[in-house]
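S2.1 Query sequence (SUMF1/EgtB/PvdO family nonheme iron enzyme)
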Amino acid sequence: MFELVAHDLHTVMTQVRERTFALVAHLDEDRLNETTSPIMSPLSWDLGHMAAYEDLWLNHRVGGRELLREDLAALYDAFETPRAVRGDLEFLRGEPLREYMAEVRARALEAPVRDGGELHELVIRHELQHTETMLQAMVLAGIAPPSFTGPPAVDGSGLETVEIEEGPFELGSGSEGFAYDNERPRHTASTGRYTIGRTPVTNATWQAWADNGGYTERAFWSDAGWAWRTEQGIDSHPGGPRNAPVMHVTYFEAEAFARAHDARLPTEVEWEKAAPRLEGVGAVWEWTSSHFTGYPGFKAHPYREYSEVFFGDHYRVLRGGSCATHPRVASNQFRNWDLPERRQLFAGVRIAR
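Output structure tokens follow.
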């Protein structure tokens, strides 16, 4: 049984790495090493970080071996080296980077599989999540791979709603299988009656709002949102295919749009309850009004820095996944989070009332 599990996990690890390299195959070394934005990492740093994370969890923590390159531990620690400084560091590049990634992987394939492969799955999903972040950086820089076409069209404007009845339901992931610590424990939650968008809001609907003064009408915006809009000089949105969900929307913009339509953003409880009945889930991340915090009975696992250190009032929860999110990561229980001013995310909006 364990041999079968190990074989399956190793196959997935190989497929995911091939996918990662394919994502950047069109770029030369200069593009891989440059800093495209102060809020994004150089792509080569992300690649090295993936390998260092794998070495830490599979080779060191599971396999009991010394780190392959202990001198790289701080360099590739996301907390020790925030995004704003990564481009100035001597991270691995070119052939030394590829050799490091290959040697870490060779060792990882020898690591024992424990607890049903939980930490192997953690490493796999970590790489998949980072490839979405890398794609964000590429889109910002105008160097996205030709295969990335954005979210598919939806059949609706985003203003049509469906009704969800009041009452309890089970929120979060169960005890079986892999889940992140912030998805557990599964527990009973309850909502009142509400309506929620049948689809995400489309570019056509968003543009109509912008053309009618959406970005200049102060009444639509929160104090924080208006301050962000003014400071950044934001008075429009780059747009996209008319029938596709609007994307690269901040929480502040999503909140203002909803308010302008006598609506609001759903809570994440409302979102998860309604998700099985909604269309367009997984096309774009969808902002919720909820702050990121732990469920009742939350326990950090396998380390505090995955979720717990981000709990509080700074981050808002996003749900659903995007066209850039791998299906292995995306689920109706998965909780993404980010700062309300972030526009690089593949994020849109679904209204509620």
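The beta strands are 161-164, 167-171, 187-191, 194-197, 285-291, 316-319, 336-338, 347-348. The first helix runs from residue 2 to 23.
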